[in-house]
Every structure is written in structure tokens, then in C-alpha cells.
Automatic annotation (TrEMBL):
Record's protein name: Leucine-rich repeat and death domain-containing protein 1
Source species: Alosa alosa
Keywords: Leucine-rich repeat, Repeat
SMART domains given in the database record: LRR_BAC, LRR_TYP
Region (Disordered): 205-242
Annotated ranges, domain Disease resistance R13L4/SHOC-2-like LRR: 74-156
Annotated signal peptide: none
GO cellular component, one term: cytoplasm
Residue spans of biased composition, Basic residues class: 228-242
CDD domains: IQCG
Biased composition (Basic and acidic residues): 216-227
The UniProt record lists the keyword Cytoplasm: no
Length: 242
């Protein structure tokens, strides 16, 4: 294909061309930084794209093309990628290895079928814009709280419960704050549990109680002895001689 002769090409737009496959040998265009593949007829993700290691922007939104259902693990080879557009597909999940794409600043996943996000999304600390509206998300992983640079977050039209929808509507800062507070509450709860367990061990209470001890911690034999002593202490008053 003639386009492959442009070995110094940095921008390539193949959007809305009804392509069923990307041109064979596209890997030879190793200097491409911006690639548009939206609105085509790919039945699966075109994995040859993952060999364009200098890629910074990738457009694979499919509002008019065939919907993608999954992403290959090899997409995380694109470690220089800054903007990834995967809107209007049928994605139900993301690869766990997505956390390796740490240069990502924009991730557009709106109008998919995502049910959950991997906790590794918390590794994308450079993320500034995340579009998640119109999916099937009900919760976010607590690691999401690591996204300290996130400025834009859209979660409308999701059945959100954690964080609740009223928090999500307040934007990225409110969501991150909510999740950080959740982590703190969990840490405090663990501290209390550890303290209570330690108390029970020291006082030999509950499951740590020694066989034969009462609720008060006294040995049952000692208790019987106490009863015996108490019985001996009781004296019948002597009758006075008439």
C-alpha cells in the first residue's frame, strides 16, 4: 500500500472508511504519534496498532462502526500513549495491565457496557480526564483515590452506589475525597478489631478462654473452693444456757 512508503509519517487518520482490517505492515510506520481508526468495521481490536510504540493519541470510538467487545493485554505496550478514545463500543471490562499506561492523561470510555474497573486504574496517576458516563458501573475501586490529578470525571447514567450518585455528581474531587475517607474508615475499623482481639487474648476471653474458666476468667475449681470456704465461714449461733 502506498501509504506505507511515508515512513516518517506522524499523523494518520483512517476514520470512517469501513475498514475491516488495518493495512498490513502498518508497523513500518513506526514514527506515528496520532492514529485515527474510529467508525470502521473491525470485528476485534486491531492488535498491530500495539506495535506503534511512539503512539500518543489513539482514536477507536465506534459511534458509526462495528463495536469492540474487549481489549488485548498488548495494548499496554503503548506506554507513551497520552490520549485513548474508546467511546461507543461494547466493552465490558479493561485489562488488569492497564495500570502500565502511566502516561495516559485522557481516557474516554463513555457509552460502553463496563461493569467494573480494575483496581490497577489507580496506577494512572497522570490521568486528567476520565469519561465513564453511560456504562453499567455501580462502584469504583478504592485505588481510584490515587488519581490526584483528575480534573474531569463523568459518571452520569451509571447505577452508582459507591460512591453514591449524589457524590459522583459533584465531580472528580468529591469522588476522590469520598474514597480516601472510606480507606481511613476501614483502617480505623481494623485498628479497633486488632485492639479488641489483643484484649481478648490477654484476658483469655471468648475463643481464647482456657478450658474450665468462667466468664469472669476465674478457674471453675477456684470458684468451687470459694464456695466451700464461704460455707465454712457461716457459723450457727450458740444457744445461751438457760
Amino acid at each position: 500500500m502506498e501509504i506505507l512508503s511515508f515512513v516518517h509519517l506522524e499523523d494518520l487518520s483512517l476514520d470512517d472508511n469501513q475498514l475491516r482490517a488495518i493495512p498490513a505492515g502498518i508497523q513500518s510506520l513506526s514514527k506515528i504519534k496520532n492514529l485515527g481508526l474510529s467508525g470502521n468495521q473491525f470485528s476485534t481490536f486491531p492488535t498491530a496498532v500495539c506495535e506503534l510504540l511512539l503512539l500518543e493519541k489513539l482514536y477507536l470510538g465506534q459511534d458509526q462502526g462495528m463495536k469492540l467487545h474487549s481489549l488485548p493485554q498488548t495494548i499496554t505496550q503503548l506506554t507513551k500513549l497520552k490520549e485513548l478514545y474508546l467511546d461507543n463500543n461494547n466493552l465490558v471490562g479493561l485489562p488488569n495491565s492497564i495500570g502500565k499506561m502511566q502516561r495516559l492523561q485522557v481516557l474516554d470510555l463513555h457509552n460502553n457496557k463496563l461493569k467494573a474497573l480494575p483496581k490497577t486504574i489507580g496506577c494512572l496517576t497522570g490521568l486528567k480526564k476520565l469519561y465513564l458516563q453511560t456504562n453499567n458501573l455501580s462502584s469504583l475501586p478504592v485505588d481510584f483515590s490515587n488519581l490526584r490529578n483528575l480534573g474531569i470525571l463523568t459518571l452520569t447514567e451509571n447505577p452508582m452506589t459507591a460512591p453514591p450518585l449524589e457524590v459522583c455528581e459533584q465531580g472528580a474531587e468529591a469522588v476522590v475525597r469520598y474514597l480516601k475517607e472510606k480507606i481511613c474508615r476501614g483502617a480505623n475499623c481494623l485498628k479497633i478489631q486488632a485492639w479488641w482481639r489483643g484484649t481478648m487474648v490477654r484476658k483469655k476471653l471468648g475463643p481464647f478462654k482456657e478450658p474450665g474458666t468462667t466468664k469472669s476468667g476465674k478457674d471453675s475449681k477456684d470458684k468451687d473452693k470459694d464456695k466451700t470456704h464461704k460455707g465454712k465461714d457461716k457459723r450457727t449461733p450458740n444457744k445461751k444456757n438457760a
